[in-house]
Amino acid sequence: MQEASDLLDETTTTGEKRISRENGILAQGIVSIPFALGIIGLILAIATIVQSKKAIEEYNSNPGIYRAHSLKKVKAGRTCAIISLSLFALGIILVISISI
User: What is the pTM of this model?
Assistant: First the structure.
């Protein structure tokens, strides 16, 4: 009979390495939301999307060595950045519609 730790090792397919910049990407994405209507939020959101694209490519190049949780952090940061960009676009649309 196998021990519980042996069963856990067999079912775990993710590695031990973390994706570089995972926490920074998540933090930038979160911080970009409160500043979404300004230039700072726009810069942070664009930088987050660029960095998350590189991090996802890094993960996809060899997914077996990286933790799945690292990828989730990167995707969460990217989602926050997309929300921030959407809010920025909505703000621009509102400003244009009010001025017309």
Answer: 0.82
User: Could you give the CA distance from residue 80 to residue 49 in angstroms, rounded to a whole number?
Assistant: 9
pLDDT digits (tens, 9 = 90+) for 67-96: 999 999 999 999 999 999 999 999 999 999
Which DSSP string corresponds to 37-49? TSHHHHHHHHHHH
The identity of residue 39, as a single letter, is I
Residue 18 corresponds to which tokens in the numbers above? 């973390």
Kindly list the domain boundaries of the chain, sorted by start residue. 17-99
Q: Which of 31, 71, 73, 29 is nearest to 48 (CA)?
A: 29
The pLDDT of residue 1 is above 90: no
Q: What are phi and psi of 2, to 5 degrees?
A: -85, 150
